[in-house]
Structure formats: structure tokens, C-alpha cells
Amino acid sequence: MAEQPKNFGFGEDEVMLRDSARKFLSDHCSSDTLHRMVASDFNLDRPNDCVWDQGLWQQIVDLGWTAVCVPEGAGGIGMPAVAAIALAEEVGRTAFPSPLIATLSATFVLNACDSAAATAALTEIAGGKATALALTNAEGEWDSAATDVRVNADGRLDGLAAFVQDARKCAQFIVSARSDAGVGLYLVSAAADGLTLTPDSVIDLTRDQARLTFKQVDAIELAAPGTGSAAIDAALPGLLSLVAADMVGAGEWLLQTTVEYAKTRVQFDRPLGFFQAVKHPLVNVMLQIDNAKSLTYHAACAIDHEPAEALRLARMAKSEASDMAVFSSSRAVQFHGGIGFTWECYVHLFFKRQMHNQVLYGDAKYQRALLADLIIGKAA
User: Domains in the chain, ordered, with CATH?
Assistant: First the structure.
């Protein structure tokens, strides 16, 4: 078994990518800008619109972010998984509304497919074609055997895919579908005849979610029937790590913002941060963020260097990050006092993103239950 490199393989190129992403997003997606973009209307009956800056998306495509983990042979940069995790962390830090996380997730799945069609799809992603995964059934199951979509004898798709992330921002979807030969993976254009997209109403204002209904929809085979489950299983550590990294970034924003507020808000002639009932929980938030971050980069590094351990480490990262997401959000709202729960306070944007992410692909309890199965099974 190959050993992991120092610093999780996070070298000079990855540092440059992270730093440039942080500067770009801080310049173009400040909290003020984000709130004006997605939270200008507080009315509960507001239209279920998909609000995002497509001009900024084109800029990050031009910067090569979608090509980061696409192999060089497919027109990408071919960086390790930790590079995508660094981008996801910076996206979470600004709650940036875009299909980048969805597209990076699709990249992990396509990299696990061994076909010319998958390579062609990776080339399109490197060129900036936003892509989302449609793997989840109506019951919320996303494992390799779960799908409500079926492949007909003519190769067309019928059925339903639910909980598709950032669906209205994407130009194509990777769909898991079942036939008598097993589960396969298929590429479907968002403009395909017979495809109906029904938006969901979700609490997270920085992303959208939808259900896809397929009625005799043309599709391109990415992974043959019977091989799609293996591709999904191989990509799962990357999917879990991306969501965990997003939560780490959002947690860092919540911590930094709350600490700054505790330094400036005065009560009983003292800054709030003077009181142990405030400072000690904030230290605990910092420790949880550090734990989640270390586990997330460990898991991402394992994808390239210890693939046999990647899923176990990714479940650990997702579990810790999910717990941290809940704790960091609750402390931020609590310590902002009377303004913490208001629409005008930016905390709610990150709170809602954390709540969405912590259940995506299973919350902490779910991950720990599967971890117990992995560990006990190995011990037996």
C-alpha cells in the first residue's frame, strides 16, 4: 500500500490554486454581494427562482477550475483530488452560488468510468459544461443499487431522479439507470426531449435542487449496464469529501464572523468575547473545524494514494463535518443575539447551507453507522 505524502499532497500548485480562488471569490462574492443576489426578497411566497451569476461562472471556467481534476488526456489539468477539495472549501467559505461542486462531483464519477463517452464528457467539463449527478431515487437513496430510472430496449430512459443538486444551472446530467443486465450510467442533455425538470423548494438560498422525470429520453452510455455501480462506489469518497470541504469552508466563515462580532459587541461594559460562556464554545467550534478539515484532506489524499482506505476516511470526514456544521451554525446564531435570527443578518445564508450539506449523502449518524459496519466487518 502506498503511503500518503506529507501535507496530504498539498503542494505549491495546490496552494496557488487555493489562494487564487480565495482572492477571486472574496473580490467577486462578498457577503454583501451574496445577500443582494439570493436574499433580496424575504417574502415566503417569493418565486422559486434560480439566482446565480453566469458571468462569474464563465470567469471561473476561464481560470480552469472545472478542469482541475480532469485528466490531461481529456483536456484537463490532471491535479490530485485535494485540489478539488481546496476549491470546494473556498466555495463554502463564500457560499458561492454556482454548479462547481456539482460539476466536480460529476468529474469524480466520470473518472471512474472506463469508456470513450466518459472521456468525451470530461473534455466537455474541462471546457466549462456544467454537469450534475442524477443518482438518487424518490426515497432519497443514492447508493450504487438505488435508481428509479430504467433503460428501455431501445436505449432510452424512463423514470425519476430526485434531489439533483444545482440542476437548473447545469447543461447535462449523469444518470444511473437499471436494465436487466444491471445498473449503468448515462449522459443526458438538459435540453433533451422528454426530460422534465421540476424545481424543489429548499431552505438553502445559495443553491437549487430539482426532480428529473424521464419519458423516452435519449441518452449516451457512459458505463455499461452492470458496471455503473462500481463507478459510483469508486467515486463516493470524492463526493463525500467535496461536501465535507464545503461545510469546512462555511464553518470557517461562521467562526470568523462570530469572533469579530464578539470582539466589537459590548455588553455589561465588556466585549462579548470576554465572557467564558462565549469564548469557550467558540474555541470548541474552532477545534471541530480543524478536526473536520484534517479528516477531509486525509480522505481526499487517500483517493490518489490509499484508495482502499478512501471510503472509510471519507465517511469519517463527512461525519465530523456534519456535526461541526450543526454546532458552528447554532453558535453563530446564538452569539449574534437578537440579530442572529433576522433576515438582514448574513448568518442565515451560511446556516441554511450547512443544514443542507449536513444531510446530503447522509448525516453524521448515518455515516457512523456505516463506519461501524466497515470496522466491525474488518475486525471479524
Answer: 6-126 (1.10.540.10), 131-226 (2.40.110.10), 229-379 (1.20.140.10)
